[in-house]
Amino acid sequence: MKKKEEKTYNLSEEIRRIKSEKNALILAHYYQTGDIQDIADYLGDSLGLSQKAAANDADIILFAGVKFMAETAKILSPDKKVLIPDPNAGCSLADSCDEKDFEEFIKKHPGRTVITYVNTNIGVKALSDIICTSSNALKIIESLPENEKIIFAPDRNLGNYLLNLTGRDIVIWDGACHVHEEFSLERILELKAQNPDAKIIVHPECERPVRMIADYIGSTTALLNYTKKDNSKSYIIATEPGIIHQMKKANPDKVFIPAPPRDSTCGCSECNFMKLITLEKIYNCLVNESPEIIIEKELLDRARKPILRMMEISEKYGI
Ligand code: 13P
Ligand code: SF4
Question: What are the tens digits of pLDDT across the range 242-289?
């Protein structure tokens, strides 16, 4: 154990040294492991990470997250070198929306504004009118005229959540995230029975029955902030458990219980794509400046427009 700690420490120190030598910025999502969160220059949810990727003085951005996030950083900072430590870090939600099928879907529902969750591949973004994240999706829909018809993609659970909140005319693409859809309502209720004072806090990518029993629903940053402001002593967390690292740091005296998935052979709900990134891969990626995100300019330009619309609306509402 001591050896592993020493190795992690040395690797972290080396990463810090090389990134300052190369003027590189490490952006990490909350679903990364704790050791990676601890060496990040900026840690955040999808919206915060996009905002940071758009405004920084680094020469290199290393993205400790999944591919659609690194692509978004490249779209927003096309002149910078954007690195991803493992290009196989995909996303089941992004892959549930194929570009060609989505193009057909849009044609089948003409005259609708296409609002697409940031968890999509770049070709799908390029077909969209406005991108959103779980932090700003509600405000983005509310910013449109009430009679505006909408297509929402690709997450059916977030789409359903937004439809219920706004009552707007929304056609929803039938996609989902394999992590958030797998939480077991029964097992969460069992945990609640064992911990009656625990608050159930839930990401909107979860299915409706899980959202229905939530004390609070929000993006990863919103969930983290909730645990800071709320005065309960314990929480059942229905999102990827990586976020618990920050919740514990911010609230050392509180108890955080990860919500279990349906499949009882595995007690955890980790995103296997997020967890492909390791300190070793980050180190090698920084040293070799590879793998790099390379995308043709024309596609970058098309995908940038709907992201900039998101940024404008977010800025307007102070999100
Ligand atoms: P947020 O970080 O925007 O809450 O999204 C969660 C997620 O699933 C990222 O992959
Ligand atoms: Fe994609 Fe789900 Fe993993 Fe997020 S948690 S990266 S939505 S598969």
Answer: 999 999 999 999 999 999 998 756 667 999 999 999 999 999 999 999
Distance CA(211)–CA(24), nearest Å, equals 39
**Å from CA of 239 to ligand 2 middle:** 10
Which residue has a Cα nearest atom 6 of ligand 2?
91
CATH of domain 11-90+276-294: 3.40.50.10800
Q: pLDDT of 97-123, one tens digit each?
A: 999 999 999 999 999 999 999 999 999
Q: Which CATH superfamily is domain 93-176+299-316 in?
A: NadA-like (3.40.50.10800)
Q: How far is CA 269 from CA 64, 240, 244, 261, in A?
A: 19, 6, 12, 6
pTM greater than 0.85 (yes/no): yes
CATH of 183-268, one of 3.40.50.720, 3.30.70.20, 3.40.50.10800, 3.40.30.10: 3.40.50.10800
Ligand in nearest proximity to the CA of 223 = 1
Residue 267's CB is within 10 A of a number of other CB atoms, namely 10
Type and span of the H or E element at 132: strand 130-132
CB-neighbour burial class of residue 118 (10 A; exposed 0-12, middle 13-18, buried 19+): buried
Distance 3 CA to ligand 2 centre (A): 32
Q: Write out residues with Cβ below 6 Å of ligand 2.
A: 66, 91-93, 119, 177-179, 240, 271, 273-274
